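Summary of Year 1 activities. Much of the first year was spent building the evaluation harness for sequence design. The harness presents a backbone, in tokenized form, and records the residue chosen at every position. We chose the following record to illustrate the format because it has been used consistently in internal testing since the harness was completed.
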């Protein structure tokens, strides 16, 4: 028979929702299970019983994963009148003590049995279900009776004790569909961000959200929108170009047809208390005498449980608890750099966080121990000690207490609280805050090291990808674009790249990029009107204030002119553009030198929007990127210079233009193999020798590339010179052969077809040709007959004593003479080759075509013969004697 309070029958209430999860038998699963139950019940709107459910779940999951050593299955069931939670393990033979039996629950301080004791004390009903392979311990929590619609309530307070709000608090309600597009935008969103609903509906939230981009760490906006519930801070780019820091609560829901969407509630960041879920302390969940028997962890007393598992969440929770603990107006926490020389602002409350985040201040803020972050310090009135706490300058805070965070004697950070009234704090408050700092220091350092490790892994992946992208191009403009695109928005909001042509040149603004494309023109106009940064070769990032100062001055002048107070020219096309540009560059701007081969070849400039700062790890990552980018940019410069020289020299090897030959059509097509080559081992030429006589040549030097091109230049210029000196074809080629052999080791074999052409008055043309080892010229007659027009003779560059002879050919009207290099005849597709016969077959189809059409048809036939690009140079020279026109 079941004892009072213990129920084994199946619950009869209607189940309206359920959520289930399994947790591995490891210690951290207990905290994960607590978070699962908390998030589930808060999502169902059962905040009144969340704490009790979390306490009971924690104890039962501990029994399963720690004591029983099995997986814990947690099932949450929502009913009309409460919640039932079942915790199952895979150890069914463990006994469950029941009230009234001889077995005692034991002391609340003992581990065993405490979970069931809590169930008996807290739950409305509870019980145990056995199965052959597992056991379930369940408990039921009924909702407290309360007036309909009331979730929670507080005491009546006098008006003067209510929190002060800066104007009416506006809560933007934005709904995001499955694809990330905005489909609802309320009036408060219009007021906060300046966009009308029709301007944003249908657009992606990522077009407006300024999400914190840090390589390798943090949840991305797309991931956050897919979570069932998410709370946190980010920015929204307003219509005027400013970034509005907001605190957001996201809730993912689905409609009756099952379509999911995310409802986002947003307030200004300093009004986060409006949306932020209240944090629970252990004292909130302990009940009666049970809390007296439990040993509380000082860390959990201060920070709450469960503690955030991310560094930013832990730091934010710390400053909020510190502020509340000392009834302060603001609080801040700074983390020390590795060398302990600077402190970086990582979390604030009650201060303009968007302006302060990642700002850096020196560890020694003043002289002596009183102004040092390494010791506790109490300032009764900051107006008497200006600059003692640089972070609070201009914030209106008067009294402040700061304490160090130390781990094993090493400074890891500084925690402070401040109030607007003077004389608020004494040594007693400093001791309380130091006690809290000592409790939190180790957890902060552990979380910080974990974040650094994730950041290093992300940075390494980022740099590897950047190196691959930069190594994949030798084009200067593409390299500049890659440099900017890799930094924006991952490292900075905007980027500008300056280049320096040589040591005597001024830096030139070569590329500008902003994450918002509409801001690029205004940013480029601003940077072009100010002096570029100095090209200092010293490594590391240095702050450059000129852009923000110039932008603010331009905004001031534009505002005055719009009010009729001046006529000074301004940047941009109006006050909106100018103010947007000022907001875009109003934050921290840094310059990193681009140094390659011991010379500054440019500067990489990175910037943040108004009042934003770079974190130190991002600057170190940007410095690594700048070194790789500098080498890639210099390589692209060297490649461009050498390519320009190579192309200039190659162009000098080709005839500048073909002369007009009376009564003869001439067409040349040339293709050099290899990327960037204009001239290779094949060449051609057509030039006047004397009145009425023309020389022509087409040749092929053994090999390709620069060495072959050198012999090409020798051959072409020697042919012209010798022919104009009056030598005949055989004498010209014999002397060229001797010149090639004189080159020694640099010489190359050369096949050459050389001829002289005399147009005749009767419309024909007489040719004298010498074919030295070259593919034979083909003659096409009007009837389609194709025949060789010369006989083969030895090639050049092999033997010293050559005896060459020339052959005479007469081209009648309608005849075509086709001369090609072996890149045409040796075109291959697998084992097939076009060959002399294949070329003759193609030429036979060209009757009646002009010289240009013949050359084009031959080229098309060669290209279609094989799918792969040509691996050899090709030259095609077609000459045709036209048919006489009928009167």
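For this record, the design step produced the sequence shown next.
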């Amino acid at each position: 028979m079941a004892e009072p309070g213990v129920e084994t029958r199946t619950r009869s209430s209607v189940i309206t929702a359920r959520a289930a999860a399994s947790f591995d038998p490891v210690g951290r699963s207990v905290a994960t299970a607590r978070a699962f139950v908390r998030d589930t019940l808060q999502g169902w709107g059962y905040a009144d019983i969340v704490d009790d459910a979390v306490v009971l779940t924690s104890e039962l999951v501990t029994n399963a994963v720690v004591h029983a050593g099995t997986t814990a299955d947690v099932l949450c069931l929502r009913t009309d009148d409460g919640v039932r939670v079942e915790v199952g393990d895979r150890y069914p033979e463990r006994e469950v003590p029941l009230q009234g039996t001889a077995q005692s629950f034991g002391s609340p301080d003992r581990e065993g049995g405490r979970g069931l004791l809590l169930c008996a004390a807290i739950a409305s009903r509870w019980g145990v279900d056995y199965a052959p392979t597992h056991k379930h311990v369940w408990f039921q929590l009924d909702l407290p009776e309360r007036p309909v619609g009331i979730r929670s309530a507080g005491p009546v307070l006098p008006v003067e004790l209510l929190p002060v709000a800066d104007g009416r608090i506006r809560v933007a309600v934005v709904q995001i569909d499955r694809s990330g597009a905005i489909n609802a935008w309320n009036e408060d969103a219009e007021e906060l961000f300046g966009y009308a609903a029709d301007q944003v509906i249908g657009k992606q939230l990522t077009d407006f959200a300024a999400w914190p981009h840090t390589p390798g760490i943090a949840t991305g906006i797309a991931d956050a929108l897919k979570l069932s519930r998410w709370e946190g801070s980010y920015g929204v780019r307003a219509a005027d170009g400013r970034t509005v820091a907001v605190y957001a609560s996201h809730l993912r829901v689905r409609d009756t047809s099952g379509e999911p969407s995310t409802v986002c509630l947003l307030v200004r960041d300093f009004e986060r208390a409006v949306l932020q879920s209240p944090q629970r302390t252990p004292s909130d969940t302990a009940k009666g005498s049970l809390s007296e028997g439990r040993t509380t962890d000082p860390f959990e007393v201060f920070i709450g449980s469960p503690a955030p598992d991310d560094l930013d969440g832990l730091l934010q929770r710390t400053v909020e608890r510190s502020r509340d603990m000392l009834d302060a107006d603001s609080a801040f926490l700074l983390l020390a750099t590795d060398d302990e020389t600077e402190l970086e602002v990582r979390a604030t409350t009650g201060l303009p966080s968007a302006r302060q985040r990642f700002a850096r201040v020196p560890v020694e803020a003043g002289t002596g121990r009183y102004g040092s972050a390494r010791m506790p310090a109490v300032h009764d009135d900051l107006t008497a000690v200006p600059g003692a706490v640089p972070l609070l300058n201009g914030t209106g805070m008067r009294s402040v207490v700061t304490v160090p965070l130390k781990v094993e004697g090493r400074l890891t950070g500084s925690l402070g609280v401040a109030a607007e009234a003077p004389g608020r704090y004494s040594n007693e408050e400093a001791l309380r805050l130091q006690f809290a700092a000592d409790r939190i220091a180790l957890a902060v350092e552990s979380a910080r090291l974990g974040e650094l490790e994730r950041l290093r892994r992300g940075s390494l992946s980022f740099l590897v990808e950047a190196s691959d992208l930069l190594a994949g191009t030798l084009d200067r403009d593409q390299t500049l674009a890659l440099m900017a695109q890799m930094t924006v928005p991952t490292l900075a909001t905007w980027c500008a790249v300056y280049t320096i042509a040589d040591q005597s040149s001024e830096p030139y603004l070569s590329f500008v990029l902003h994450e918002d494309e509409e801001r690029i023109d205004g940013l480029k106009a601003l940077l072009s009107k100010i002096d570029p940064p100095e090209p200092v070769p010293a490594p590391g990032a240095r702050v450059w204030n000129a852009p923000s100062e110039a932008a603010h001055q331009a905004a001031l002048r534009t505002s005055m002119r719009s009010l009729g107070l001046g006529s000074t020219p301004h940047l941009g096309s109006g006050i909106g553009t100018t103010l947007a540009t000022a907001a875009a560059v109003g934050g921290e701007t840094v310059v990193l030198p681009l140094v390659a081969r011991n010379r500054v070849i440019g500067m990489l400039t990175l910037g943040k929007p108004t009042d934003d700062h770079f974190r130190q790890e991002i600057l170190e990552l940007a410095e690594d990127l700048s070194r790789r980018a500098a080498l890639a940019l210099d390589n692209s410069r060297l490649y461009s210079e050498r390519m320009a020289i190579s192309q200039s020299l190659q162009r000098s090897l080709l005839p500048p233009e073909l002369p007009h030959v009376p009564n003869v059509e001439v067409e040349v097509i040339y293709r050099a193999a290899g990327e960037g080559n204009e001239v290779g081992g094949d060449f051609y030429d057509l030039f006047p020798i004397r009145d009425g006589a023309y020389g022509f040549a087409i040749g092929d030097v053994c090999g390709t590339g620069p060495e072959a091109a050198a012999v090409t230049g020798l051959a072409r210029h020697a042919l012209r010179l010798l022919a104009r000196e009056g030598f005949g074809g055989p004498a010209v080629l014999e002397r060229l052969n001797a010149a090639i052999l004189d080159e020694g080791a640099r010489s190359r074999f050369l096949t050459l077809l050389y001829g002289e052409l005399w147009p005749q008055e009767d419309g024909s043309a007489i040719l004298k040709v010498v074919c030295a080892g070259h593919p034979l010229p083909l003659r096409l007659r009007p009837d389609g007959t194709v025949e060789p027009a010369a006989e083969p003779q030895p090639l050049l560059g092999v033997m010293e004593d050559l005896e060459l002879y020339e052959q005479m050919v007469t081209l009648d009207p309608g005849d075509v003479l086709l001369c090609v290099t072996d890149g045409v005849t040796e075109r291959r597709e697998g084992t097939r080759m076009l060959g002399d016969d294949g070329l003759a077959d193609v030429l036979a189809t060209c009757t009646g075509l002009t010289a240009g059409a013949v050359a084009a048809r031959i080229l098309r036939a060669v290209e279609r013969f094989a799918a792969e690009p040509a691996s050899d140079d090709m030259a095609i020279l077609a000459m045709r004697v036209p048919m006489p026109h009928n009167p």
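Residues 427-471 form the longest helix (45 residues). Quantitative recovery figures across the full test set are reported in Table 2.
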